[in-house]
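Follow-up to my earlier ticket, as requested here are the two runs.
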Amino acid sequence: MIQLTEFESLLLETFHLSDRDARRLDRVITDLSIIVGMDSNEIFDFMRFGIEQEFEDLRKDYNWEKFRIRIQKKLKKTSPDFSP
């Protein structure tokens, strides 16, 4: 059995994941944290209520890269284009 961190255990319990998937989700969250400038807890809070469809798709196709990109697009701040 894999020794999980406290955060990975929280992910496992919250999202009903296997040990391996909890570790993978932790890596996705860490990557997202670097890209979008939010800390892991902020991303975790968002994930609890804002990505039901993404989790559903992940369970179907098990494509972690697609999963990360879709969440990143939701989290990344985009500024409106004010050019004439």
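Run two:
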Amino acid sequence: MKEIMKEIELKYGCNPNQKPSRIFVEKGELPVEVLSGRPGYINFLDALNAWQLVSELRKATGLPAAASFKHVSPAGAAVGLPLSDTLKRIYFVDDIAGLDDSPVACAYARARGADRMSSYGDFIALSDTCDLPTALIIKREVSDGVIAPDFTPEALEILREKRKGTYNVIRIDSTYKPEPMERKQVFGITFEQGRNEIQLDDPALFENVPTANKTFSAEARRDLMIALITLKYTQSNSVCYVKDGQAIGIGAGQQSRIHCTRLAGQKADIWWLRQHPKVMSLPFVDGIRRADRDNTIDIYISDDHDDVLADGAWQQFFKTKPEPLSREEKRVWIAENRGVSLGSDAFFPFGDNIERAHKSGVEFIAQAGGSVRDDHVIMTCDKYGIAMAFTGVRLFHH
């Protein structure tokens, strides 16, 4: 007879000095089962937030979904669309057997690959059963754990061997429905609110279009839904850029919305720059560690490229010294990015956000609306032919 689990003891809370620590339910049983490892407090915060995100993406798009979570915000989120040869290469999954036949593996490759610096040491959520190709991707990445509704025997065997058996593998009951009211304590005081059950796959969200351009392609609507659902589980303030079924830049937890837009835009630009021919042909030394390679690419793309190209430095990373990627080359390449969708978890207060978004190829926007400067925001969108919907929905998450 299956044991009813009502609580799981954790190693510690947010920090090692915060003991004891546990997760528990007052009624019923926990919807999660630890199949391997010993998850911590932050692991479960990431796992449960990420699971909600991928579950909603699955429902909204009808496609398997994956998320890469770090410190209670997504570093990446995506649905399982096929990968181009370019994306396979920049995500370093072109050697994964069976990838093309596994939508969930494609989803995780996208979620992990969009912002590899932020995804380092992530917690993974999968909307569908974790299969062998997905496990093969996870096996070689630095990660804290994975949550999914199930695992194939081959995938579970691989994951249980990761990190000498300490890798966190969590199975969740996909039929679980939480209580409509949620609570948490801060400084000994209990907060209570209704769960945020807003449905973001509602076509009515895109009916209020105040811009001159009122045309949203089917792909843009899908990508805007992905942006909004991602923002629903991202620490506010937050802005999300999406292209071709995946987040390519997430700006989370900033006090100023323009800083969210800049941060997310910078990440979107880096994602696009990683597809530049010079970056894709970098002559890395044999055996370079994955983390060192990712960090080197990030520096090479930045204005600090001399840190990896100076004499005495480049030899650590490259077989031959690469030419730098000039500012003009970067400007020209970034200008070629098009068809990007952008979502914001609240209204844009000024047109400067639109100006910055335009620089990263944004052509479609979904935001709450309701600023006293909506007229200026609309005017800036019209300046660039951007189609923008006022959803009337705020998506703060804390």
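The only thing I checked on run two: The chain has a mean pLDDT of 96. Let me know what else you need.
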